[in-house]
Amino acid sequence: MESGGEGGDEKRQRRRRRRGRPWAVCLPRPGCFTVSAAGEDEGTSAAGADEGGTRPTPSHLVVTVNGIVGSAENWRFAAKHFIKKHPEDVVVHCSGCNSSARTFDGVDVMGRRLAEEVTSVVENRPELRKISFVAHSLGGLIARYAIALLYERDTQKDSHEECDKNAVGNPSNQHSSGGKIAGLEPINFITFATPHLGTRSHKQIPLLRGSYKLEKMAYSLSWIAGKSGKHLFLKDIEDEKPPLLLQMVTDYGGLHFMSALRSFKRRVVYSNVCSDFIVGWRTSSIRRQHELPERQSFINDGRYPHIVYVEEPKVQEVEFSDAMIYQAKSTSEMEEVMLKGLNRLPWERVDVSFKKSRQRFFAHSTIQVKTYFMNSDGADVIFHMIDHFIY
């Protein structure tokens, strides 16, 4: 009886501590989860087929990656509908290695964690043959770093410059240079509202309303986001090396950033054209401001009411050399180098607008359907992604 009393006291103390910390219930739950045709969330080592063997074993791994201060839970809605539509094709693994405050550790550190997590999943699922990545916000940069670590060449080409020539010669959406990611065939690489060009440039953070004073203040206070803030604001210039985001537009230091991206059959960027106060349209769509399509060219498909424009993949023939990442010094020069470097590959660009939605003020989360209660209007964007996925 005495021990039971002590246990009761401990429970009451824990309840009192929770009441004293109401913010604790708002924190993302840590940990990853894998969803397959079995219909239940599984651990990273669980099998994807039913025990009775009545259902074909899915062979396509879809890895989802959360953004800053996010968690694996943020992709639960998308994971559920992936499995609902293609139960025999995909296993969805919602990464949990970079959640909450761990998202301040830097793109490189988080990229290594993600690569290790993906390797663990693949090792425990020998039936897997294909791999795709779906990432939100900062998660897109983390995924780009991780695939560079996971990339394995399966050709005899020693120079990525040869692959660049092939990319320009064949702008097809299906073009890839060969190679594997974690030993699997790379299929889709998709990002939602990801700051591919960083957040340092003018108007890249819409919340600051284009004010140079506010942008300068944000640049000075970027340390609040830890090493990730330094990477996003291109402040990580050390040992005469270019900032990490510039390194990532070429194969740099033994890491095959562009070769890994090129190996995917399809690369897609979903971008908010308005109301995203966190990540600007330019940096998320990898386009220049004047390339925003005019209003009359927008489309509005009844099935996807918030998809306003889809640009077919194309390759921009530009002069680019690795030396350019060292020569760029000003903000505008660095942005131009990243634009040229990334646009050597064909990207499918999908513009999204929540202008008429009551959830438009949460556009950065709504495009992902972070939580269905607050972001349900983004469901058609997720359905668009799933419907156009290559399986």
Key attributes of the depicted protein:
alpha/beta, single chain, 9-stranded mixed sheet, two-stranded antiparallel ribbon, 34% helix, Rossmann fold
Topology:
Layout: H1 2-19, E1 33-35, E2 41-42, E3 60-65, H2 76-85, E4 90-94, H3 107-123, E5 130-136, H4 138-150, E6 151-152, H5 160-169, E7 180-181, E8 185-192, H6 212-220, H7 226-232, H8 244-247, E9 251-252, E10 255-256, H9 257-262, E11 266-272, H10 281-285, E12 307-311, H11 324-327, H12 331-342, E13 348-352, H13 363-366, H14 372-375, H15 379-387
Parallel strand pairs: 3-4, 3-5, 5-8, 8-11, 11-13
Antiparallel strand pairs: 1-2, 1-4, 6-7, 9-10, 12-13
InterPro entries: AB_hydrolase_fold (IPR029058), DUF676_lipase-like (IPR007751), Lipase-like (IPR044294)
Region (Disordered): 1-22, 37-58
Organism: Setaria italica
Structure characterization notes:
This protein is 34% helix and 14% strand. The protein has helices at residues 2-19, 76-85, 107-123, 138-150, 160-169, 212-220, 226-232, 244-247, 257-262, 281-285, 324-327, 331-342, 363-366, 372-375, 379-387; strands spanning 33-35, 41-42, 60-65, 90-94, 130-136, 151-152, 180-181, 185-192, 251-252, 255-256, 266-272, 307-311, 348-352. Residues 14-29, 44-52 and 156-174 have low confidence and may be disordered. Helix 3 (107-123) packs across helix 4 (138-150). The chain has a single domain (2-387), classed as Rossmann fold (3-Layer(aba) Sandwich), CATH 3.40.50. A 9-stranded mixed beta sheet has the order 2-1-4-3-5-8-11-13-12, sandwiched between helices. Strands 6-7 form a two-stranded antiparallel sheet. By secondary structure, the chain is of the alpha/beta class. This is DUF676 domain-containing protein. It comes from Setaria italica (Foxtail millet). Residues 57-283 form the DUF676 domain.
